[in-house]
Amino acid sequence: MKKIYKFLMVLCVLSVFTCSVYAGSHEGTYNMTGGIFYKHGFKKGKNLTIDVYPTQGTSDCKMGIYTAEKSFWFGWQGADFISNVSSVQSSETKYKTKSAIDGIYFRDWAGQRWKGSFYIAW
Questions:
Q1: How buried is 79 (Cβ within 10 angstroms: 0-12 exposed, 13-18 middle, 19+ buried)?
Q2: What are phi and psi of 72, to 5 degrees?
Q3: Under a CB-based contact definition with an 8 Å cutoff, are residues 30 and 106 in contact?
Q4: What kind and span of H or E run contains 44?
Q5: Which of 14, 30, 33, 35 could potentially form a cystine with 107 if both were Cys, beta carbons 3.0 to 4.6 Å apart?
Q6: pLDDT at residue number 1
Q7: In the predicted model, what is the mean pLDDT of residues 62-85?
């Protein structure tokens, strides 16, 4: 009976370790007038869920969300468009990466101060 118990414990520990390697999340805030980068590498084919919770925005302007890539010569830059989301209402966006990326870029097109928080799960 002790061997079965030990075996089950090992399976539980390994399953928790495996899940933590392949899944994750990040919660952050933004306070911007141009844009911010969330720096985290994602492999091709990774399913992302991006939740945005604005606290200050511009009602007639949307926030752009893009994939981000790090370039030796040009620094951080937005690459592929993911979605336009409201700068004043909460939203959820689902996206599957088309290639390996270095992060996510949130873009404020109004040129005014936008504040809020975001949550990314993968």
A1: middle
A2: -60, -40
A3: yes
A4: none
A5: 35
A6: 57
A7: 87
C-beta of residue 97 within 8 angstroms of C-beta of residue 8: no
Q: How far apart are CA 13 and CA 28, in angstroms?
A: 29
Cα 30 from Cα 57, distance rounded (Å): 11
Q: How confident is the model at residue 2 (pLDDT cuts 50, 70, 90)?
A: low
Q: CA 70, 74, 76: angle at the middle one, nearest 5?
A: 35
Tokens of 105: 């870029």
What is the identity of the amino acid at 49? Answer: T
The amino acid at 48: L
Range from 24-33, 43-52, 73-82 carrying the lowest mean pLDDT: 73-82
- What does the angle CA 43 – CA 46 – CA 47 come to, to the nearest 5 degrees? 160
> What are the backbone angles phi and psi of residue 10, rounded to the nearest 5°?
-60, -45
